Amino acid sequence: MADYNVIVIGAGPAGYVAAIRCAQLGMKTACVDKWLNPSGKPSLGGTCLNVGCIPSKALLDSSHHYYFLQKQAAEHGIKFGGLSIDIAAMLARKNRIVKTLTKGIGSLFKQNKVASLEGAARLTGNQAVEITAHNGNKQTLTADKIIIATGSIPTPIPVATIDNKLIVDSTGALAFDSVPKRLGVIGAGAIGLELGSVWSRLGSQVTILEALPDFLATADRKIATAAQRELKKQGLDIHLGASVTSATVTNNEVTVSYQEPKKGEQQRVVDKLIVAVGRKPNTAGLEAAEIGIQINDRGFIQVDEHRQTSVPGIYAIGDVIGGPMLAHKGSEEGVMVAERLAGQKSEMSYETVPWVIYTHPEIAWVGRTEEQLQAAGIEYKVGQFPFVASGRARAHGDTSGMVRLIADAKTDSLLGVHIFGHSASELIAEAVVAMEFQGSAEDLARTIHAHPTLSEAMHEAALGVDGRMIHA
Ligand code: FAD
Ligand code: AMP
After folding, report:
1. Could you tell me if 252 and 303 lie in one domain?
2. Which residue in 75, 128, 198, 328 is deepest, having the highest Cβ count within 10 Å?
3. To test ligand 1's pocket by mutation, which of 20, 32, 150 has the most ligand atoms within 8 angstroms of CB?
4. Residue 294 DSSP class
């Protein structure tokens, strides 16, 4: 008999959720993770809790409060003097949040009777995992099924080598001990925009260099244009079509060279440079290929529709298999795999995975964009409601952005919802539920929304699909 029914490798949002769900369903489960925090202590939760979703949101909130007090409080009649930011205190708060939540995963493991194993896992067969503990001790454990959830790491680029002093990746950018006067960011994806926003709000002059010609190329064009305009107003100097060719450190400064379409070779000198050009699958030391697991040419583990790898009985979920590299996508894959191992027929609907970029205001969407629908030859109708016409947005003092709701021209079923605005990350949930239930614009239009709320903008956009908005 095997030591466990299931061994999960990796305790990020994909792995820890999979492990808990397996245990809930009666499987004897272990989860092995190798993460060590900066003080050398094991810490559960993977990238998301330690150096990703959670610490970035903690800093986004802190920096937003500071920005609000500096730029917007006066409008509310709030007067004060001597405003300053204590970066050490801000980072300590972030670290406390991370500590509480990562410890929380340990408690959840105990509560659900998941065995939490510390160390690096290596696959030694289709039912065997060798674990090297942090003190070097090795043990081999067997399991009926194995779930790989080893996540991802920042993609390095040869033109800007991380030195963890002046040139950092996203992890380094969550821990600057002072506000860099001039900050460069390579990559205008979610991570680049969020970290650029944090330090810009605290006073950095931020230059963002993005190789692609379009801003947020996968987002709805009108939303992307509105967001780009707003972020520029906030002080982010975003260069599109700007491909970085080198980054050289001299005299405590970084000289970044980049090619711009019309201007040719350009240079910018910064005090810190963040490389945020995406993430790559983390399979180092796992020896997955050695036991016959197929890996694609971009390094992602290949899986079938139910996340089984090419080796029967071994599954892979989360960032390590690619697709949307988002915590909630990995978690839901974990639930699906666990439930299927327990004999259930769970499926996951990738069409309704929400995307969020936590700038201010936030950008969120679910489903398809107009551009994708046009390319697919699908006829659609759009309802668009601007937050400037929302009473609640005015009361907040946050009127930028809009909701754009796209419905099938013939069936009225919801095909996509795109939001740029205050609390878009929360508002998008309504669209996800509606789409999950195969709802129509009419369903949302007939749903009563509390007044005054930002969610009324969703209601109005749904009415707008048939040209019957009330407030715009
Ligand atoms: P990970 O979280 O990377 O976890 C993998 C775990 O496996 C790690 O603990 C690792 O140590 C462990 N591991 C790897 N190899 C082994 C091995 N051989 N043996 C044992 N253990 C191993 N996503 C969102 O949805 N929302 C956000 O707001 C968001 N913000 C982000 C902000 C930043 C700055 C970053 C960097 C990422 C952000 N993400 C966000 C992405 C999100 O963090 C990832 O999509 C998510 O963490 C992936 O989860 P995962 O479980 O697949 O992998
Ligand atoms: P994401 O994958 O969403 O985190 O976004 C990373 C962004 O970095 C993408 O939009 C890439 O186009 C961009 N990028 C990648 N390499 C470079 C480079 N050398 N210079 C500028 N931008 C880059």
Report:
1. no
2. 198
3. 150
4. -
